[in-house]
Amino acid sequence: MPTIPNSAINGVITGWGRALPETIVTNDDLAKTLDTSDEWIRERTGIEQRHIGGTTASLSIESGRRALEMSGVDPLSIDALILATTTPDRTVPATSAAVQHGLGLRCGAFDLNAACSGFVYGLVTAHGLIAIGMRNILVIGTDTLSRITDWTDRNTAILFADGSGAAVIQATDGPGQLLGWDIDADGSLEDLLYADIGKTLYMEGKEVFRRAVRIMVDSAEKSLKAAGLTTSDITLVAPHQANIRIIEAACKRLDIPMSKTSWVGDKTGNTSSASIPLALFEAADNGRLKTGDNVLLVGFGAGMTAASAVIKWKQP
Ligand code: ACO
């Protein structure tokens, strides 16, 4: 388990932004064409509605612009753009190219695909780049899962949606935010959740559910240990917003009360790479975080990937 060397230059989030498409699709809307009901979807997932529309680039530019404005950093001073997405707009080039251009950046830019764990993978990667000399990184998590969802399949159509969340992370000479982290993947589970090129998502929901709880708990425990903290030190958890029952089961095993979690999945559905930043920054925008709070980010996704990070919040 890697720990952060005391000598490492650390980073801090200085601005953030969120973006959701305008079009809202409710459970009742879905029940018009699928053999399902609002009651079933709410009970089994906690989801009430989702936002659908846009492209990965357009949503990323929207959230990215808000993050840049909030941080006040000159776009030309951004050293790297990391776009976490599992739904790129094109096979070639990376969607980060369009986002870089749209935001007026002149820097290294690349896509990172770790499915729903992507934003935390991006956060960890950003701190690695800061440790080797970069100063300003823009990390964006965006997915437009609606474009690879089979809208006639009630097993998946009720879950997936579109959204974006972005963070500017800047090097700091003072104490940084990243206390502990973990990234993991088990490629032998690839067939539990996949979409072939040009095709829609296939998912073994029950098995994903079972494994998700276990890997979220494992990953969270590793990050907490690396940070030298226990769950009682955590003020807020921003978990991947896949299903409220997965979050409840994981929190129960971690002994974290649900009142400490940020749940936006009722309004957004599962937005994959956008899910954790949407949950984190909604909590921040609603005044649920103050400087010094320890925050746990934890997610899982296709691949099957897992990622978590413990950060010490610094209110900009
Ligand atoms: N509406 C009504 N009935 C349904 C629906 C629906 N939308 N979907 C399934 N059912 C039926 C099933 O056919 C089944 O009927 P049966 O008992 O007659 O066979 C019954 O409801 C129960 O189905 P289960 O699959 O057992 O339902 P479960 O409680 O497991 O919920 C769900 C299904 C919501 C998919 C759940 O398993 C889940 O959330 N899994 C995790 C999915 C997930 O998180 N995926 C994202 C991974 S992250 C990423 O990278 C994108």
Q: What's a concise summary of this model?
A:
With 316 residues, the chain is α/β, with parallel strands linked by helices. It has 10 helices and 13 strands.
Task: Break the fold down into its secondary structure elements and pairings.
Blueprint: E1 10-19, E2 24-26, H1 27-31, H2 38-45, E3 49-51, H3 56-71, E4 80-84, H4 95-103, E5 108-112, H5 118-131, E6 136-144, H6 154-157, E7 162-172, E8 178-185, E9 193-194, E10 202-203, H7 205-227, E11 234-239, H8 244-254, H9 265-268, H10 275-285, E12 294-301, E13 305-312
Parallel strand pairs: 4-5, 4-6, 11-12
Antiparallel strand pairs: 1-7, 2-3, 6-7, 8-13, 9-10, 12-13
The structure holds acetyl coenzyme *A.
The site of acetyl coenzyme *A has 22 residues, from α2, α6 and α7.
Protein described:
This protein has a five-stranded mixed sheet with strand order 1-7-6-4-5, with helices on both faces. Strands 8-13-12-11 form a four-stranded mixed sheet, sandwiched between helices. Helix 7 runs parallel beside helix 8 (about 245-255). It has helices spanning about 25-30, 40-45, 55-70, 95-105, 120-130, 155, 205-225, 245-255, 265-270, 275-285; strands spanning about 10-20, 25, 50, 80-85, 110, 135-145, 160-170, 180-185, 195, 200-205, 235-240, 295-300, 305-310. It contains ten helices and 13 strands. The chain has two domains: about 10-170, Peroxisomal Thiolase, Chain A, domain 1; about 180-310, 3-Layer(aba) Sandwich (Peroxisomal Thiolase, Chain A, domain 1), CATH 3.40.47. About 35% of the residues lie in helices and about 25% in strands. The chain is globular. The mean pLDDT is about 95. By secondary structure, it is α/β, with parallel strands linked by helices. The structure holds acetyl coenzyme *A (ACO). Acetyl coenzyme *A (ACO) binds near residues 44 and 270. Acetyl coenzyme *A binds near residues 116, 212 and 242.
